[in-house]
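Task: sequence design from structure.
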């Protein structure tokens, strides 16, 4: 697949699965905006992308902040052009210290939903407006096999990824008439920095 001339935004693109996706999209020719809460790591990945596709940028983004998401959309359009592809990859497995507990706390539930579900909705909302206007776009949401089967110890994470699957299905139905596809990927457990903390 040749993505030359296309612009892709990857949230949580600095490390792990997001970084791998960004590098693969760059390999196919796309210009990449790396959006991440870790701006230092995002800049490193953007530099790697630059070597591959020649066009990249990094933008400090907290997906739970609607204004930050709006700023991301504006920065993408101003720097690389309007987004053709959105990869909603930003996510967490729990609140601080989750990996040291054998149970979910209320804060785990709140924080995980805030990032994994509401954050994804925030980013999608600002980019769907641009895509709808152009009547074209591709949105890919990172869910998890845990959202289909559930996992012990991290029910908050499993439930958030089940919500991502439902959000994807609903958004796909809403946006189909604008020639915008919305799909979810459900990876199994991969050794990423997030899971490396366990």
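Answer:
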């Amino acid at each position: 697949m040749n993505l030359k001339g296309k612009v892709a935004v990857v949230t949580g693109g600095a490390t792990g699965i997001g970084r791998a996706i960004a590098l693969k999209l760059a390999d196919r020719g796309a210009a990449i905006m790396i959006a991440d809460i870790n701006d230092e790591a995002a800049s490193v990945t953007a530099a790697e992308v630059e070597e591959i596709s020649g066009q990249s940028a990094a933008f400090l983004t907290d997906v739970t902040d609607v204004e930050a998401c709006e700023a991301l959309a504006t920065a993408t359009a101003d720097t690389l052009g309007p987004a053709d592809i959105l990869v909603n990859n930003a996510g967490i497995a729990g609140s601080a210290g989750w990996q040291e507990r054998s149970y979910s706390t209320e804060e785990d539930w709140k924080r995980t939903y805030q990032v994994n579900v509401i954050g994804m909705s925030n980013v999608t909302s600002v980019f769907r407006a641009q895509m709808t206007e152009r009547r074209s776009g591709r949105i890919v949401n990172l869910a998890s096999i845990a959202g289909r089967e559930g996992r012990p110890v991290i029910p908050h994470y499993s439930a958030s990824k089940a919500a991502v699957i439902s959000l994807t299905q609903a958004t796909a139905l809403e946006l189909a008439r604008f020639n915008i596809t919305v799909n979810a990927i459900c990876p199994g457990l991969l050794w990423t920095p997030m899971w490396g903390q366990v």
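Strands lie at 7-11, 31-36, 56-60, 85-88, 137-142, 180-185.
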